[in-house]
Amino acid sequence: MLGPQNRYLWFWVFVGPFAIGLGLFTYVPIIWSVWLSFYDARNTVTPTRFVGFDNYAAMLGDHAFTSSLGVFVVFSLFIVPATFALSLALALMINRLRFAQAFFRSVFFLPTACSYVVASVIWKLSVFNGVRFGLANTVLGWFGVDGVAWLSTTHPPWYWLVIVSLRLWLQAGFYMVIFLAGLQRIPRVLYEAASIDGARPGWQVFRYITFPQLRATSVAVVLLLVIGAFQAFDEFYNLLSTARGYPPYARPPLVYLYYIALGQGQNLGLGSAGAVILALLIAVVTIVQARWFGLGSKEE
Fold it and tell me: pLDDT, tens digit, for every residue of 193-220?
């Protein structure tokens, strides 16, 4: 048997590399970004002049930043309920299967392994290409409907359909697995008791037994979906960017901060202030949601 000192040594052998990487590539950049937000840092990561809260005041007074938060709200209103409903429906369907559960679970989870960049390229060049050989326009052509410029039309804003469908395809399988785990934790005796009491299979059982038992799971899924919507970047940037740059519409917070910090002005101090504000907003929204829905309460 290993002595206490040897166990302590082996603990750091396995955990040490991860802890070092986490500190160097996560916590150090966070601390440096907070520090940089109080300085005038243009075209350099080295602080030059202390400006206090001027960067924060400038960011909060910037109409483009508040507009980016509006884009987040619109995106959340689309993606959160759509992903929630689809992933729950898939989980309910798979949970009722008696055979091939593992197969269908793997099939629906498989898109999660695809990166957002690769999926964005597929969506942009194949599925929702604005020319006649795009898959979506080909299907429309079968019904005599003219092709649509999906990513460049703002009236109506068809680009939302492209962006939401992309993220829905990528993440529905992940949340399906979470719901499936919650469903498999529900005691079978509850369904048996409901059957004895005369509850009809289907909507009544789902409304009075299944969904209440998934309360904590549902809250966790909503929290993760909202945080993910805050962090949206890859699909917006890769789908809407062109040779002329990024269009003025549909800029979520991370895309806006990317252009502030790494665009032509390269104002890293202002971009860092925006990142800190965004992190605080995410924390506040998460805490409010957790308190409102009672995250952590026991599923009864």
Answer: 877 777 777 788 888 888 888 988 998 8
